[in-house]
Amino acid sequence: MxxxxxxxxxxxxxxxxxxxxxxxxxxxxxxxxxxxxxxESMTSRKxxxxxxxxxxxxxxxxxxxRELFKACVExx
Length: 76
Description:
By secondary structure, the chain is an alpha+beta fold. Helix content is 28%, strand content 39%.
């Protein structure tokens, strides 16, 4: 992810970046974005789109991804 793109995500009011830490180090992250439904309907609908989600290999299978995903669901 380039620095310019990362800065754009930070400034975007419709995006949220989650960071997972283990032993003080960043071990995972998720990027969420609120979007409008692409389908025309009588009611405007919004949904949360998960753009990126990852946990470093050494921290996988320890429940970190599950907790990060739960935080994403609660935010959305």
